[in-house]
Amino acid sequence: MKYLKKERPDVYHAFMELAEKIENSNTLPGKTKELVKLASCLTQGSSFGIGLHVRSAFEQGATKDEIIDTIVLCLPTAGISLTNQAFEVAMGTLSLI
């Protein structure tokens, strides 16, 4: 994001405004939002995003089992490689909390 912010600040600010509006919707609880974001990052292979959203989900009240189940639910869609990667990152992140 630092390059987007530096090179195209107007696009960066528009994106951040959109993300804030989405985040501020009150339909889903914060924990659920973070678990959905975790699943999305897993399917994209984003280790950074997985770690970020595991921590955020835990801070929003998700249990270790809920985080594990979110990862397992992605197995049929994402495949074993991305699922294993997510487990590595998630367990490492949880061990630091």
Question: Could you explain how this protein is built, in words?
Answer:
This protein has 97 residues and is mostly helical. Helix content is 82%, strand content 0%. The protein has helices spanning 2-7, 9-23, 30-44, 47-59, 64-73, 75-78, 80-96. Helix 3 (30-44) packs antiparallel against helix 4. The longest helix is centred in the C-terminal third of the chain and has 17 residues, at 80-96. It is globular and about 40 Å long.
Fold topology:
Elements: H1 2-7, H2 9-23, H3 30-44, H4 47-59, H5 64-73, H6 75-78, H7 80-96
Helix pairs in contact: 3-4, 3-5, 4-7, 5-7
Short description, anyone?
This protein is mainly α and 97 residues long.
Radius of gyration: 14 Å
Class of secondary structure makeup: mainly alpha
Unreliable spans are none
In N-to-C order, the SSE pattern is HHHHHHH
Please state the average pLDDT score. 97
**Helix fraction by DSSP (H/I, runs of at least 4):** over 70%
The count of strands amounts to 0
The N- to C-terminal Cα distance equals 25 Å
Tell me, briefly, the overall form. Answer: globular
- Main sheet specs: none
